[in-house]
Amino acid sequence: MTRLLATLTLCVVVAAPLAAQDTTQGEKGVRVGIDVNRGVRPGVIVLPVASGLDSVRAIVQRDLDYSDRFEMIGATDIASGTPTGGRATEGELQSGINYGLYRSFGASYGVQIVSAPGGVTVRLHDIRAGKVRNQQNFVLASGEGEAFRMSVHQVGDEVTRWISGTPGIAATQVLFVGGDKRIYRIDSDGWGATPITPAGEPAFSPAWSPDGRRFAYTRLDRGEIIVRDLGGGGAVTVPGTESGVNYTAAFSPDGRHVAFAHSDEQGTNIVSADVAARCCVQRLTVGRFADNLSPTYSPDGRRIAFVSTRAGPPQVYFMDADGADQQLLVPFDYGTTGASYSPEWAPDGTSVAFHRDVGGTFQVLVMDVASRRVRQVTSSGRNEDPTWAPDGRHLAFISDRTGRRQLWVLDLETGRVRQLGTSSVARIPSWSRRLGGAVSNP
Amino acid sequence: MRVSHILTVAIAGALVVACGKKPEPEVSATPAVDSAAMMRARQDSIDAANRRRAEEEARQRAEQERLAREAAERMAALRSDLEAKIHFDYDQAKVQQGDQQILDRKAAILQANSSVTLRIEGNADARGSDEYNLALGNRRALAAKQYLVNKGIDGSRLETLSNGEEKPIAQGTDEGAYAQNRRDDFVITAGADNLVAPQ
Predict the structure, then answer these.
(1) Tens digit of each residue's pLDDT (9 = 90 or more) over A46-84
(2) For all residues of chain A together, what is the average pLDDT?
(3) A39 pLDDT exceeds 60?
(4) What is the CA radius of gyration of chain B?
(5) Using a CB-CB distance cutoff of 8 angstroms, which residues of chain A are in contact with residue B139?
(6) Cα first-last separation, chain A
(7) What ipTM did this prediction achieve?
(8) Residue of A183, A248, A264, A268 to mutate, interface with B, max B Cβ within 10 Å
(9) CA–CA separation, A387 vs B129, rounded Å?
C-alpha cells in the first residue's frame, strides 16, 4: 500500500479556465456576462484501466469533462517517469479502490471501467462513503469508428446522470455548413467531421429532426428544402418549397411538421408543411411589407418564435403554431436596440437564444422566457447562430474569434468556452437531441 | 508566240493611227488584226469592270461589316444596360436615387423589346446575418421589380431570386468589397437576340 502511495500521484487536470468570458460593456438594459457558479462541482476521477480500455477511458473522461458539471481529477505515475495513460497497477486492480487516497485529492466520485463480454462494466464509486453507488454493463459497438464512439459516449452520458441527475450531452452531434457549402456532421467532442450532403449541391440551414434520424436543409441551387434520411433512406422535397427560395427549416417537436421561411414575390413568410403526410402547406405569416423567417418551435410544439421586420429592424416575435396571436417576444428599444436574428428555443422551454447586432458586430444573447430578461453571453469577436445542446446549458455557435468563422461551445453555467472541431469554415450549426437510443432524462 | 502577238498589236496600233478619219473600212478590211485589238480592249474593259465590281463588293462588305459591328456594339450596349447592377445601403432594400436612371434605361429597353425577360437576383454582403440575408436579397430583387413595374413593365417578364450573401463578386472584408456585394444582378433570360434601341 505504501508502494502504491509512492508510485501513484494524483494531480488535478488543468481544465480550461472557468472565468466568465465576457466583461465588456453591452447595450443598455442588457446584462453582460455569465453567472459563474464555482465550488459546487464534485471532483471526479476516472480510475486507471486495464490494457485495451485506454480509448474507452479517454472518451468517458472527456465526456465527463465536457459536461462541465465536474472537477475532473487525473492520475499520473511519477515513479516510472512516464505518464501511465491511466493504466492500473496490478496491485490496485486486485486490491480494489484506495478511497482514502482519492479522497485526499478531492475526488467525490471514482468511475471504474472494466472489461465485460461485449463491452464494459462501469462502477461509480462514492469515494466519501467508500462504496459502489452504481454499476451497469454496457454493450459497446465494435471497431473504433463512429458507432463505437457513440456507444462509449452513451456510457459517459449515463455516468453523468448517475452523479448529477441529468444525462450528459456526449452522445450528440452537430450539423453545420462547411466552407464548400456542404452540410457536415461532427460528434459533440469534435471527432469525425463528415460531409452528409452531395458534393456540388450548395446547402444551407441544416436542422435536426427530433429523433435524430433525419435532417432538413436548403438546397440553395434550387431553393428547395430537402429532408434527408441519415440511415441512407433517401431524400424528399418538403411540400411548398418547389417555388421561391426556402430556408431556416425547423422540425416540430413531434417530427411531423417542418416550418420554414419562403421568399417569393409576396416577400418572406413562414410556412409550415406536414412532412409525414407530405401535405398541408400552410402560410403562418402575411407580410406584404415585412419579412418573417427563422421559425423555432417551443418544446411543447404549441408556439413558434421567429424573426420579423414588421417594426423595421429584424426582432424576435412569437405566435401560436397555427399562426394565430402574433406578438413581440424579445423586448427592444426602437432605434437603439440592434437587429436580432436566429432564435432557438431551449429544450426545456425556459429560454430563447439568438444573436443581435451589438456595436456593429454580432453577439449571442439568451432571454429568460418567464421574465423576458435578456443577457449577453459572448463578447469576443463576432458570435452568431446559437443552437442548444439537449441539456439546455450548452450552446454551440459560430465565432470568428480566431480570425475565421468556426464552431464553438459555451457552457452557460461556468462560462467555459471550447472550440468544436477544426473545420476551416463553419456556419449555421444545429445541435441534435440525444442520439441512438441514448439514456433518457429521468 | 508572244513576240508575234506584240507585233500584231503594234501593227494594229500603227494602222489605227495611220488610218486617221477613215478607220472603220480599214479595220473591217483587216478583220484579223482588228479583232485581236477589239478582244484585247474588251478584255481590258471586262477586267476593269471586274475590278470595280470587286472593289464595290469589298466596299459593301466592309460597310456591312461596319454596320454589323455597330449593330453588335449597339446590341452589346443594350445588353449591358439591361444587365447593369444597382447597389444598396447596408441592410436596406430601397432603390437609391443614383440608381434610378439605371432602372429607367432598363425600362425603356424593355418597352422597345417586348420579348425580353429578366431575372433579378438580389444579393447581400457578408456583414449581415447569413440566413436573414436571403430575405434581404429577396426584398432587394422585389424593390427593383416594383420600380420597373411602376414604369409600365409587365411583372410577368421579371422573375426574382435571392442569393443572400452566397454569391459575392468582391471577396474582401472591407466596406469597399461589401458595397459591391450589396446589389441586384440582372440576368437576361429570353428574347434578347435582336434588341432594338428605344426611341
Answers:
(1) 998 998 999 999 999 999 999 999 999 986 532 233 334
(2) 88
(3) no
(4) 35
(5) 267-268, 291
(6) 40
(7) 0.85
(8) A268
(9) 15
State which amino acid sits at residue A55.
Answer: S
The answer to whether residues A286 and A308 touch, using CB atoms and an 8 Å cutoff, is no
Q: What is the pLDDT of residues A19-29, one digit of tens each?
A: 444 444 456 66
Distance from C-alpha of A367 to C-alpha of A342, rounded to nearest angstrom:
13
Q: Is A159 helix (H, G, I), strand (E, B) or coil?
A: helix
Rg (chain A; Cα; Å): 23
What pTM was computed for the model? 0.83
Asked if pLDDT for residue B42 goes beyond 50, the answer is yes
| Residue count of chain A | 442
Name the amino acid, one letter, at B160. T
- Could you tell me if A13 and A72 are in contact, meaning their C-beta atoms sit under 8 angstroms apart? yes
Query: Cα(first)–Cα(last) distance of chain B, in Å?
Result: 69
Summarize pLDDT for B156-186 with one digit per residue, the tens: 999 999 999 999 999 988 999 999 999 999 9
C-beta atoms surrounding A14 within 10 Å: 8
In B, minimum Cα distance to A222 occurs at B161
Q: Of A265, A362, A385, which is closest to B160 when you measure between CB atoms?
A: A265
**Closest-CA residue in chain B for A289?**
B139
Looking at the predicted structure, is the pLDDT value of residue A259 above 80? yes
pLDDT in tens, A326-356: 999 999 999 899 999 999 999 999 999 999 9
Long-range CB pairs of B141-150, under 8 A, 24+ apart, other chains included: B141/B184, B142/A265, B142/A267, B142/B93, B143/B93, B143/B94, B143/B95, B143/B184, B144/B86, B144/B95, B144/B103, B144/B120, B144/B184, B144/B186, B145/A265, B145/B120, B147/B95, B147/B100, B147/B103, B148/B103, B148/B106, B148/B107, B148/B110
Q: Which H or E run includes A86? A: none
Of B179, B177, B172, B181, give the one whose Cα is nearest residue B123.
B181
